[in-house]
Design brief:
Helix 7 runs parallel beside helix 8. The radius of gyration is 20 Å and the shape is globular. The longest helix has 19 residues. With about 350 residues, the chain is an alpha/beta fold. The two termini are about 20 Å apart. Strands 1-2-3-4-7-8-10-14 form an 8-stranded parallel β-barrel, surrounded by 7 helices.
Length: about 350
């Protein structure tokens, strides 16, 4: 592990008293990101869900964060490509990257099950022959990549440009394609991601249940990704992230919220989207024990980036406390480099 950030689902409007409003959730996300930037945290990442009281349309939020911060990476984990216009997303992503001075880490995937049945069709995107929309997402992602890589995709008006001229999507942000990630939930998607030459976000769940520990399944997935990357001949070090729920127990309030979860919990297996899937456990313990436990987590140690899933409903101050506790008492022992030491980097592949 070289870097860590937080991953927020951006919940609002839930709880016995209604919880925080959508506006409060968004402002809290900005304030948390500003505070995390000052702590040296490397990334602020947001989950995207549609038709739900959670984060959606992330680029306005990320632009606001980018404008108020200096070093922290801003990104998603992940955008559901089924709901996106790939060329419009390419325009907005490039604008965001220019505002952020190259600090974007945009995670994209087919997306997880949503509250709406084939909700992407309500957004106007029809034609998928897959009940989960995977074919639509992949087709759109391929076009998105071509756009951000500067391919000239549209025929120019000959009255303005002359004959046989083509135009690229504008603005263009050089190097943005090296900071695009695909969310992989299986060995097969890990292999395809490596072949494609984009970074990999290993999912919070894996659509496999072999009996092996979640961390070992993820470590195998990371190895498959890196092998495919090397065999494809890509010439840079790729980034790999995993996400975990990790809570250092520092005081009675932490203990009240989370107890000693890592001593009691185990991986979970369930059915998601028709697949038997494996979920990771929650780590909650005193800092020295967390260091020992995370060192034994094969995927955490293989990945260059760890995303800490946070309970955003508990507010800005509490989540800053979680991040500060991890930064001071856990992360340095795992190989962490604060954002003041430069952009996060992947491990070289030999």
């Amino acid at each position: 592990m070289r870097s860590f950030g937080f991953l927020s689902f951006g919940h609002y409007g839930s709880g016995p008293n209604g919880g925080m409003s959508a506006a409060e959730s968004l402002h809290s996300a900005i304030d948390l990101s500003v505070g995390a930037d000052r702590l040296g945290v490397n990334g602020a990442y947001f989950r995207v869900h549609h038709f739900a009281r959670q984060s959606a349309s992330p680029l306005p939020l990320l632009s606001a964060i980018a404008a108020k911060t200096e070093n922290i990476e801003v990104g998603t984990g992940v955008i559901d490509m089924r709901y996106e216009n790939p060329l419009q997303l390419a325009e907005e992503a490039a604008a965001l990257d220019l505002i952020a001075d190259g600090r974007v880490a945009l995670g994209i995937s087919r997306g997880s099950p949503e509250p709406a049945l084939r909700g992407w069709e309500a957004f106007g995107y029809t034609g998928s022959e897959d009940p989960r929309g995977a074919d639509l997402a992949q087709e759109k992602f391929d076009l998105f990549l071509r756009a951000i890589r500067g391919e000239r995709l549209a025929a120019a008006d000959p009255a303005q440009y002359g004959q046989n001229q083509r135009l690229r999507v504008e603005p263009h942000s050089p190097g943005l394609d090296s900071r695009i990630w695909w969310g992989a939930g299986s060995r097969d998607t890990a292999r395809r991601t490596g072949e494609l030459g984009v970074n990999m976000m290993s999912s919070t769940l894996l659509t496999e249940a072999t009996g092996d520990a979640f961390s070992d399944l993820q470590a195998e997935q990371i190895d498959i990704f890196r092998t495919a990357w090397r065999d494809a001949g890509h010439d840079r070090a790729p980034r790999v992230s995993v996400s975990r729920s990790v809570f250092p127990i520092m005081n009675d309030r932490d203990r009240l919220y989370f107890g000693l979860g890592s001593r009691e919990q185990h991986d979970q297996v369930g059915i998601i989207d028709g697949f038997r899937s494996t979920f990771g456990k929650t780590y909650a313990d005193e800092p020295d024990r967390l260091v020992e436990q995370l060192r034994q987590d094969a995927a955490v140690m293989e990945a260059d980036t760890l995303m800490l899933t946070i309970p955003n409903q508990l507010g800005t101050d509490f989540n800053l406390h979680v991040l500060e506790s991890f930064a001071k008492y856990v992360a340095p022992a795992l190989g962490w480099k604060p954002n003041t030491e430069g952009p996060a980097e992947g491990y070289p592949i030999s």
